[in-house]
Amino acid sequence: MKVLHVAAEVFPIVKTGGLADVVAALPLALAEQGADVRLLLPGLPPVLEAVQGARTVIDIGSCFGALRVRLLLARMPQTQLPVYVVDAPYLYRRGGSPYQNYRGEEWPDNLQRFALLGWVAAHLAADDADPAWAPHIVHAHDWHAAMACAYMAEHGASAARSVFTVHNLAFQGLFAMHDWAMLGLASRLLSPTGLEFHGQLSFIKAGLQFADSITTVSPTYAREIATHEFGCGLDGVIRGRAGDVSGILNGIDTRVWDPATDSAIATPYDAERPAGKAACRRALQAELQLQPDNGALVLAIVSRLSAQKGLDLVLAALPGLLECGVQLVVQGTGDPVLEAAFRMAMQAHPGRVHTHIGYDEARAHRLVAGADAIAVPSRFEPCGLTQMYGLRYGTLPIVRRVGGLADTVVDATPAALADGSATGFVFDAATPLALTRAVQRAVALRRNNAQWASMMASAMAQPLSWQAPAMRYGALYDELIESPPPVL
Ligand code: ADP
Ligand code: GLC
Questions:
Q1: What is the pTM of this model?
Q2: 191 with 199: CB under 8 angstroms?
Q3: What are the structural domains, with CATH classification, of the chain?
Q4: Which tens digit of pLDDT belongs to each residue from 212-244?
Q5: What is the whole-number distance in angstroms between the Cα of residue 21 and the centre of ligand 1?
Q6: Which ligand has the shortest distance to the CA of 304?
């Protein structure tokens, strides 16, 4: 089976969040299970620099406002996975993030930039871009790739089927309606049952309306997005496609995140040799000039600093957390208000709070390995990867009961502690008090060495690899290929 994964980012080349980790690991896991998988990426400068052996598959000429567009075929560094790259210098060769400039403003031509990505995917699916390869399945990730589904629906003739994965419904790719003509789509798609969304053009709706199958990254989030509370205005659309929506829990790359072989951390360890974890903890306290206090609960946060992540709750709860013996270690970037607040917290509590504003993979590994617990108090969380990294490193997650957090962490209730299934601490209300109580439970439990060690062992034993999720995606692809295409 030939599968094309279409996305705007991929670890370790371009990454703004967990999407990049998924796009790196899932295609590889599918390939290991026998699928013929390729990626399609925009030709951002780091992509063009990193891929190997690029050759031109087709010279597309000028489109979407770009004078020269070429489709390249290359291989990913390290994994050697085949990757198509859309080389459109005018649209993609610039600094900043894939979505925004250095000032944090959306690129003004994002409509053209991401329409082109989807349009090329649809041409590959229609078998008129690469004479040597055409996918049976086009798997588009988030709004950046969603237009693939609209262009495929428009082309109609191809046998290829489409899967759209929602990694985060809050990011929708909204554009001014007057730019519609640039998309080159039939006007019948410009309606509330097409791409129109409250007077704007919505790229995510291209995925939600036209994909043959919609997945999201955890079963709980699949249910949540059908509700007004989590639906971001699209819950009606999701409910309308109820039969085609499913939740497949993400895995993690257990090679990249493996405390037994992690070269970024002070001392390797695993469930059989847990002593290394204490060495990582001491090394982290020393590195960050935290008090060398063995009784403290070293609590890590590695996160985008955004409203989604509920980090205002941590700030509001901070006095109470410090009082009950927490040492807080924060690493993140994002909202300048949150950045400033965490910086001030470090100044106010030297030796107890450490803040690093910045993005640093190796440092993230040291934090996850050295901390006792990791906090993810999100207001919503489609899946969340950091709590799974925590589980794998025996760093117990303290999470809010939403989305993938609810699906991956088993709360330390008396029953779960008794049967050995507890892996972390889960709270419900999005309030500083509820967070504080969960942290207090963790602090109290850590005093019981045997119980804490047993929770660490359960956490580290969780099956988190991509093997099972990739099989689920594989089964979904099989189902789609075998079922007759819908009549539009
Ligand atoms: P989201 O995609 O919503 O940001 P996830 O938990 O799915 O949340 O994924 C976040 C990813 O980004 C993880 O791999 C996490 O380790 C990483 N990450 C976030 N902030 C930083 C940072 N400041 N430095 C290093 N890695 C980070
Ligand atoms: C999004 C979500 C996050 C998820 C990630 C990968 O960025 O916010 O919860 O883990 O995508 O699917």
A1: 0.97
A2: no
A3: 2-251+467-482 (3.40.50.2000), 275-460 (3.40.50.2000)
A4: 999 999 999 999 999 999 999 999 999 999 999
A5: 9
A6: 1
